[in-house]
């Protein structure tokens, strides 16, 4: 072995996933009720140990899939947590990831198997270890991202109304937005396609439907355009 | 041991530091020439293994101090790199940090001891492992941060001219900025104190000196204000 590689310095490396979903009203986080020690019976993020044949991204994908049944969802690496006693069993560093999934699309059976449940951000219970800190950090990162990139479109149906989009941003940013102001700012980003179609469920006049314009967005991305709401 | 904690899954955890400095013209990165294996003789970031009695932040601080002599400099955790074969000796995950230090203030003796050298971003050599990727990621993060927060003031003397500030932003963003536009945008952020003092070295008329107003900045921080340059 080369200098510096002391076997006793090795650590366990866990991956924990903050899974966000949106149900038309609220931004929610998916949590599991642990039926194993340590901290059996407490709420927790879904997580697992990094295996020798996978990268951190691989592990995050495996863990998300095991709980929700969904695969190949983009997850962003958030932060590596390393407090000395964060895990009472053994020195464990945890790299957290966050994912945004369509709340309709998870596999209900899997979720029940893990006693998992969606929690509104305002109702997140006391979690094991430093998991509350992870969730808070993920929310802050998501809010920041939302201001820089039009993240969040994956949370909406393919065609959506301005009202739905505003609701989503209000849920992520946790504040009410002025309707006219919101529409102006969104339009100034010029990344939506207005369809010749209306959603007639909300009013007799109906509301125009929109689509996210991936191509325009990809072109603009380099400019780091901002959406200050 | 509880389920899941398999000793053979443990990994080495390294910390690598991307150390930025600014010399009035260029943004630079501090690199060391390795005099140990593996990859002896190649350029590299300064790094080390996480020890059992320290957090990742502690390790980053120790590593920065060992090379530069400076302590308690704010470092931001960047990303954890985990490609399977990134380190040919043993499975090692590396958590990278970046720091911004005053290029004048490092300890010259220490730097020579590590055969370290400042490189302009345009001249970064071929580095060991995935260190080039780390540097590129740090530059992107720094550029993004610069647009959100007035990062970078730590790179300037306490009192500075608008010209110096513009030079710094041009170095970080790697593009020329229009002078009038820059001044307007900086002023609109309202986080500088204009001093009743001039720097007389640059012209006979002299240039007003400014200071960063930490108090105003702290108050505004919550608003996530942007500086789009």
From TrEMBL, chains A, B:
Stored PROSITE patterns: NUDIX (PS51462)
Pfam families recorded: NUDIX, WHD_NrtR
Residue stretches making up the Nudix hydrolase domain: 10-143
InterPro entries (UniProt xref): NUDIX_hydrolase-like_dom_sf (IPR015797), NUDIX_hydrolase_dom (IPR000086), WH-like_DNA-bd_sf (IPR036388), WH_DNA-bd_sf (IPR036390), WHD_NrtR (IPR054105)
Source organism superkingdom: Bacteria
Protein name: ADP-ribose pyrophosphatase YjhB, NUDIX family
Organism of origin: Wenyingzhuangia marina
């Amino acid at each position: 072995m080369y200098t510096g590689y002391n076997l006793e310095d090795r650590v366990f490396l866990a991956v924990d996933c903050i899974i966000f979903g949106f149900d038309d009203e609220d931004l929610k986080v998916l949590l599991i009720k642990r039926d194993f020690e340590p901290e059996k019976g407490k709420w927790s993020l879904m997580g697992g140990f990094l295996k020798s044949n996978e990268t951190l991204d691989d592990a995050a994908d495996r863990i998300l899939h095991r709980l929700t049944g969904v695969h190949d969802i983009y997850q962003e690496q958030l932060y590596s947590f390393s407090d000395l006693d964060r895990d009472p069993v053994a020195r464990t560093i945890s790299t957290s990831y966050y994912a945004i999934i369509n709340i309709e699309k998870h596999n209900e059976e899997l979720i029940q198997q893990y006693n998992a449940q969606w929690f509104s951000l305002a109702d997140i219970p006391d979690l094991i270890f430093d998991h509350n800190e992870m969730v808070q950090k993920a929310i802050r990162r998501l809010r920041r991202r939302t201001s820089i990139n039009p993240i969040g479109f994956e949370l909406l149906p393919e065609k959506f109304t301005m009202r739905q989009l505003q609701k989503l941003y209000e849920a992520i940013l946790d504040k009410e937005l002025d309707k006219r102001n919101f529409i102006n700012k969104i339009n100034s980003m010029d990344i939506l396609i207005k369809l010749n179609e209306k959603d007639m469920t909300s009013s007799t006049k109906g509301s125009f439907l929109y689509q996210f314009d991936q191509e325009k967005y990809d072109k603009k991305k380099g400019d780091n355009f901002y959406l200050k709401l």
